[in-house]
Amino acid sequence: MNHIEHIKSFLITEFLPGVQASELTTEYDLLTNGVVDSLGLLKLIAWVESEFQVTVNDAALDPDNFRTVDAINAFVARASHPVKAG
Amino acid sequence: MSFARQVDARPDATALVAKGRLISYGELGDLVATASARLDGLDTTGREPIAVSATKTPHTIAMVLACLKARLPVVLPPATLPEATLQRLVDKARCRHLLDADGTGPARAGTTPAPGVPGNPDDVAFILTTSGSTGIPKLVPLSAGAVERFADWAAGQFDLGPGASVLNHAPLNFDLCLLDVWATLHHGGQVVLVDPDAATNGRYLIDAIDDNAVTVVQAVPMAHQLMVDAACDADRQLTSVRHLIFTGDHLPARCLTRLPGVFPASRFYNIYGCTETNDSFMHEVDRGALPLDGVPLGTPLPGVDAVVLDDDGNEITGPGQGELVVATPFQSAGYLGADPAAPNPFVPAPAGRPPGISDRYYRTGDVVRRDGDGLLYLEGRNDFQVKVRGTRLNIAVVEQVLLDHDQVAEAVVLAVPDPVAGHLLHVVLRRVPGATVNTLALRQHCARHLPTAAIPSTLRLSEDPLPRTSTGKVDRQSLTQILRSPQSEATVARKEPAR
Question: What is the nearest CA distance from A47 to chain B, expressed in angstroms?
């Protein structure tokens, strides 16, 4: 399932007032460019957990999972449909 | 030399160009005689300062010259000052007479006449105003000797004598006019008065330069940018200019790179000074090797002593960063009517200075960096230092980075206190016409040049020029209020069209 527009909408409302969804490319680096700082990252993770009913465990706290809209979308997809070990 | 000598020696030479009209030294001398007669009709026995509204007209200039001749201190309240502020300013300066704009109406009295200027009133020539952090401007008295020493230096440095044509861009109440207007009239050049209503019209400015064969241009970087843009748009060169001075702010690299093409016969100078000390540093820019990473403040002017002090007040002699403290032959003795509870930036000579230079130094509040070659660079105001998430930042540096982007015309960084982060940085900026850059790309620009903590939390685009105070600086207070008011935010942060 594709949550890209939903994720973008949250990021814009929370961190990028005035920016159009079409301007925010899915590979834009949210961390390096200061959109999401360390406090913002906690807020973003809390939102991902409650919005998509997933648990972000310590191993998944790697900031790279939240670096871009693509990365967040991929993380949500993985966390929602965990690949079971054979 | 003096103005009166110019009137006697060269009555037919042009003194002023005002709205296209030429006024000779002889004619201006007649206007001064009329103004003097008017002064004679006033009770000036208390030697109180005379307030002359700083409307930029030959009559105002004549009235100021008449005051100087009568050795009466003159205050030039900005012509745009609200009535209530004007009254408080006139009261603070203890003016007994407030003369109206064109020098024809009746004098108005201040509400607290007498007991006059503290110190030696005969010695004060100009009382300049400088924007205070709150409310009414500070009053900066300059002695006749300080003004004359400065005029002599400026006239020698920039050839302000007969044959010179000097553009006066700044409003008459600005300290820059000591060079443009008063030094020039003392030394025999002609002053080309820029109409304040047209001061931001680049095309008007370059026409004024061409029409009057202007040889000297002194202005703030914003004005140079306007002129350069207008000249490049019209594919014009301004060949008459010999000395071009930028002062008061950081000159954006995109302006600097185009100066040599637009002004092919000019030398370029960066001048640093404060109203309290007048000019203190100068750097001549080598047109063949433009300092694109920042123009140095340069070297102290003759007679100027400067030291860099660290946070503990110790002198930094090698490379390093600290507050610039100066003493100049042109400086004020101290504020008039200063709040005794406010910190006084006029201080005794720092320890270790050679005796005999000056017993009074001025803490500029400007943070400078001295590089390995001993050159000083302006880093920002020390009151612009804030902490964001524990990292100490200078918001002037952030502004400078934004202004260095070639599609940014104006930018202001506001540090808003935040209970968690200490401060958060908010940016309001205006792009150049036709710009395509958006706020996300500007974030990337900041990220390339600044530490992460210095990347602004929000960037807002303004379609309109940023509001400025009466002294031409960006009005941070009103912008902060706009930022805090959600309703008016939309007018500042008009949304970008979707692409």
Answer: 19
Q: What is the pLDDT of residue B392?
A: 72
Q: Å from A39 to nearest chain B CA? A: 9
Q: Which domain holds residue A41?
A: 4-80
Interface mutation target, options B440, B449, B483, chain A, most CBs of A under 10 Å: B440
Structure letter (DSSP) for residue A5: H
Residue B167 CA, distance from chain mean position:
15
Which residues in A lie closer than 8 A to residue B443 (C-beta atoms)?
33-35
* Residue B81, both tokens: 């000052």
Q: Tell me: the pLDDT tens digits for A6-50?
A: 999 999 999 998 899 999 999 999 999 999 987 788 889 999 999
Using 70 as the pLDDT threshold, list the residues of chain B that sit under it. Answer: 1, 101-122, 131-136, 471, 485-499
A19 closest CB neighbour out of B439, B444, B455? B439
Tell me which DSSP letter residue A36 carries: S
Do A32 and B447 count as a contact with CB atoms less than 8 A apart? yes
- Whether the pLDDT of residue A73 is over 60: the answer is yes
Domains with residue ranges and CATH for chain B: 3-285 (3.40.50.12780), 389-492 (3.30.300.30)
Contact B428/A at CB under 8 A = no
Is the CB of A20 less than 8 angstroms away from the CB of B495?
yes
ipTM over 0.95: no
pLDDT value, residue B368? 93
Residues of B in contact with A27 (CB under 8 A): none
For B20-89, give the DSSP string: TEEEEHHHHHHHHHHHHHHHHTS--TT-PPEEE----SHHHHHHHHHHHHTT--EE---TT--HHHHHHH
State the pLDDT at residue B256. Answer: 94
* CATH code of A57's domain: 1.10.1200.10
